[in-house]
Amino acid sequence: DVQVHRLFTHSQSKMGKLNVSMLRYLTREEFRVLQAVEVGMRNHELVPRQLVAQLAGLKHGGAHKLLQELIRHKLVGYDNNKTSDGYRLTNSGYDYLALKLLANRDVVASVGNQIGVGKESDIYVAGSPEGEQFVLKFHRLGRTSFRTVKTKRDYHKRRQHVSWLYLSRLAAMKEFAYMKVLYERDFPVPRPIEQNRHVVVMSLVNGYPLCNIQDVDKPGRLYNDLMQLLVRLGNHGLVHCDFNEFNLLVDDEGHITLIDFPQMVSVDHVNAEMFFDRDVQCIRDFFQKRFNFVAEDFPRFKDLSREENLDVEVAASGFTKANQAELQEFQEVEGQAQGEEGAEEEEEDEDGVVAEKREKKKD
């Protein structure tokens, strides 16, 4: 077996706890208002106060008082622009809605420390009512995207209304759908447990990110296992599209676990061959740089032999082609934005810090 030497480092930056204490104290009416803002955001970037009251089934004055309380707890933000003013969910507000439902379903009983930070996700350890530990992954699309103001504005022009929360939900739906079909085929992926809104619940895997492993006894064996996994995915109709050292976990016995699936596409995708070749090259480059290992043989897209159609099965599971198209449009623009350099980033008020002051001024 491949023996992994645990010579790796942990970054403690951005680590911390998810403050879930408000779940215990928010009233039923406050949750109704929070849900009303969420429903209103399906068609409004900023939800008018009158619409919030209507959707929540509350009087106008009562809704206003509850909105003020939610703003104080940074679960809702208030903003105004040249054309409209109103309310929007913050990331924290969306977190609470998802966690409330997961708690009501007896899936989540406790939330612990943050154990990972991705480009567009936050990962926490959590516990079930029975005491089992598992992972909560919060998708955060749009957090680090659009490195230039120009690209961001171009994307908004193409879409009359865009919600990062909605796109994060699509990413979670996609990840859960792919993880489920892969797990059912005995692929080395975490066990999918539940998904709600932008949150995916999955089993806690023992292993270390490949990017943090400094040495292995038999790099050739590990390399072959990874290439065989890429080919097996392809033969089942799928290309990972982000198959690299950051999305692969390896345990002490050299067993691999594949994580992170929002980029995955069908082998019938117009760019599938390019994505597959890129995945292969990522692993080849990493092994050469980290382990000084160079292999003459490597898989090619043309050598794949399709055995199953897991891409079709995913589409039938509820994550539709329309959902895929919406998410893919964002991912393509995201790639363009990250390729541009030298422009200033636009900061957004995600936690409603400025929102409370603006609302007070208005009133």
Q: Which key features would you list for this structure?
A:
three-stranded antiparallel beta sheet, 363 residues, 12 helices, alpha+beta, five-stranded antiparallel beta sheet
The Rg value, from CA coordinates, equals 22 Å
Shape annotation = elongated
What's the β-strand tally? 14
- Biggest sheet statistics: 5 strands, antiparallel
Structure notes:
By secondary structure, this protein is of the alpha+beta class. 43% of the residues lie in helices and 16% in strands. The chain has helices spanning 22-25, 28-40, 49-56, 60-72, 91-104, 149-158, 164-184, 219-235, 272-291, 310-316, 321-339, 353-362, and strands at 4-5, 76-80, 85-89, 110-118, 121-127, 133-139, 192-196, 199-203, 208-209, 215-216, 238-239, 248-250, 256-258, 265-266. The strands form 5 sheets. The chain has a 5-stranded antiparallel beta sheet. A 3-stranded antiparallel beta sheet has the order 9-12-13, with no helix packed on it. α8 packs antiparallel against α9. Residues 1-16, 145-150, 341-350 and 352-357 have low confidence and may be disordered.
What's the arrangement of secondary structure elements?
Blueprint: E1 4-5, H1 22-25, H2 28-40, H3 49-56, H4 60-72, E2 76-80, E3 85-89, H5 91-104, E4 110-118, E5 121-127, E6 133-139, H6 149-158, H7 164-184, E7 192-196, E8 199-203, E9 208-209, E10 215-216, H8 219-235, E11 238-239, E12 248-250, E13 256-258, E14 265-266, H9 272-291, H10 310-316, H11 321-339, H12 353-362
Antiparallel strand pairs: 1-10, 2-3, 4-5, 5-6, 6-8, 7-8, 9-12, 11-14, 12-13
Helix pairs in contact: 2-3, 2-4, 3-4, 7-10, 7-11, 8-9
